[in-house]
Design a protein that fits this description.
Number of domains: 2
Number of strands: 0
Order of helices and strands: HHHHHHHHHHH
Strand content: under 5%
Largest sheet: none
Radius of gyration: 24 Å
Structural class: mainly alpha
Number of helices: 11
CATH architecture of the largest domain: Up-down Bundle
CATH class of the largest domain: Mainly Alpha
CATH superfamily of the largest domain: Ferritin, core subunit, four-helix bundle
Distance between the termini: 40 Å
CATH topology of the largest domain: Ferritin
Length: 328
């Protein structure tokens, strides 16, 4: 399993000492992130900046309380264990991206940080056999949960003040869960299946000009990529810490869409006539690439022209590489 997780350790395998060390480093990182957000928003959104500054102060108090408990039990040396060392943690966006993030994006990031902290502390408290430690972790879970609700209420308040429309919180949570569990893995799978199979399929097509052989290569590449992506997605994150949903759902979405992405331009080679099959396959490729652009714009809020440049140009280059290799 470590093969799929890049050597990261499962949260369930951490000792109580390692859990406390992880919590300390996480609180320190979150404090710095909130202070960066406060600095970013201070001029245009002073009220929001004060909120993030207050959250940073509270994260610092959490860190100090955790250090006190750690030192009383395990001594002064605190091993460096970071989020990226543990499987399933929600990935923080690089802090320098805060310069380009909108206020809504910053709020959404902060809410996700607090949601994950709540889950981590609740799970850690359940595993702790030491009374004072368990009590502290439970208290921190409750505090982080209250931060989530406060952030939601503030978002509602500001959205109303800015003339926006409020949606029911359950609808937002449902949409968020759909994006994390289905849309993101599906998009990643479709991109991988559509682009990664272009070169082998079209290289085979132009090297052999045999449609049946090309179809078999495309079928094998698509199914193989689908199985690989599905297992990798399912094994890389159990969903408990990140809140991304059941591994089998994400693995299914990623695997199926990867397979379909490759089969789209492999199936035309069931047509016996080479140039007819190739022409249709190339047309299908561009339909697939534009579908990826639409999904990125629709679900990931990627600007349309940026997504077009990245996906269509990248796919066209891979297609051209396959044709040139096969014609050589």
């Amino acid at each position: 399993m470590r093969f799929f997780t890049g050597g990261r350790k499962s949260f369930s395998d951490l000792s109580e000492q390692e859990i406390l060390a992880l919590a300390i480093s996480s609180e320190e990182e979150d404090e710095r992130i909130y202070r960066s957000y406060a600095a970013r928003l201070a001029e245009a959104y002073p009220a929001s900046a004060k909120i993030f500054e207050a959250m940073a102060v509270e994260e610092d108090s959490h860190r100090r309380r955790l250090i006190e408990v750690y030192q009383s039990r395990f001594g002064d040396h605190i091993p460096l264990i970071r989020r990226e060392d543990v499987e399933g943690f929600y990935t923080r966006r690089p802090i320098w991206l805060a310069e380009t993030m909108s206020l809504d994006e910053i709020r959404a990031q902060a809410k996700e940080m607090e949601r994950q902290a709540t889950r981590v502390y609740a799970m850690a408290a359940a595993r702790s056999a030491h009374g004072p430690t368990r009590e502290l972790l439970g208290d921190l879970a409750a505090v982080e949960a209250s931060h989530v609700q406060t952030a939601i209420e503030l978002e509602h308040e500001y959205l109303d003040a800015e003339g926006g429309t409020m949606r029911d919180e359950e609808d937002r949570n449902a949409r968020r869960q759909f994006l994390l569990t289905w849309a993101q893995p599906s998009l990643a799978g479709l991109m991988d299946g559509s682009v990664s199979t272009l070169a082998p399929i079209f290289a085979t097509a132009f090297a052999t000009q045999d449609t049946w052989t090309t179809f078999l290569v495309g079928l094998a590449a698509s199914v193989g990529a689908g199985i690989s992506m599905g297992f990798t997605e399912a094994a890389s994150d159990d969903g408990r810490l990140s809140g991304r949903g059941a591994p089998w759902k994400r693995g299914l979405a990623s695997g199926v869409m990867t397979t379909l992405g490759g089969l789209g331009h492999a199936l035309p080679y069931l047509i016996p006539e080479f140039w007819t099959a190739t022409t249709i396959a190339i047309l299908v490729v561009f339909v697939e690439l534009w579908a990826i652009v639409w999904m990125q714009n629709r679900f990931m809020q990627t600007p349309f022209w940026r997504a077009s440049f990245q996906v269509v140009l990248g796919g066209a280059l891979v297609l051209a590489a396959g044709v040139l290799i096969g014609s050589g």
